Amino acid sequence: TIAKDVVVKNPTGLALEVSITGLPATFGAHVTVTGPNGFTQNVPTSATLTGLTAGSYEIQATEVLILPNSPYTKDWVPSPQQRLPISITLTEGTVAVSITYVDALM
Predict the structure, then answer these.
(1) Which residues on adjacent β-strands are paired with residue 94?
(2) Which of 17, 64, 71, 76 is an S-S bond match for 96, by CB 3.0 to 4.6 Å?
(3) Max CA-CA distance within the chain?
(4) 3-state helix, strand, coil in the chain (%, to 5)
(5) What are the pLDDT digits (tens) for 15-60?
(6) Which band of pLDDT confidence, cut at 50, 70 and 90, is reported for residue 103?
(7) Is the distance from CB of 85 to CB of 51 less than 8 angstroms?
(8) If pLDDT is split at 50, 70 and 90, which confidence band does 104 have?
(9) Of 6, 31, 38, the residue nearest 17 (C-alpha)
(10) Contacting residues for 19 by C-beta, under 8 A, at least 6 apart
């Protein structure tokens, strides 16, 4: 017999890999992913969102205040070099995006 080509599909459908860097390890990011059919997911740490449907997605990141209302308040913001929100269209496979936080005083 002659073997036929085998097509292996991603069993979880489409995926979005969100990488978050720059924040102290004990604090979560303020990153939100929105998409088709009212999809909304908060992403406080790096994660891969799986089982997504095809369509347009938006990734938004906002500032993180550490120890608010304290003399030791620290403000972390998404890097000014990033253009936010990030808009992508998922059609197949996995798409990776990266969000980098920086000290607001730097």
Answers:
(1) 15
(2) 17
(3) 76
(4) 5, 50, 45
(5) 999 999 999 888 899 999 999 999 999 999 999 999 999 999 999 9
(6) confident
(7) no
(8) confident
(9) 31
(10) 46, 96, 97, 98, 99
pLDDT at 12: 52
Whether the predicted pLDDT of 7 surpasses 70:
no
Q: Exposed (0-12), middle (13-18) or buried (19+): which is 16, by Cβ within 10 Å?
A: buried
pTM of the model: 0.81
Give yes or no for a cis peptide into 36 (omega within 30° of 0): no
Nearest Cα neighbor of 95 from 15, 24, 34, 38 is 15
Q: How far apart are alpha carbons 24 and 45 in whole angstroms?
A: 11
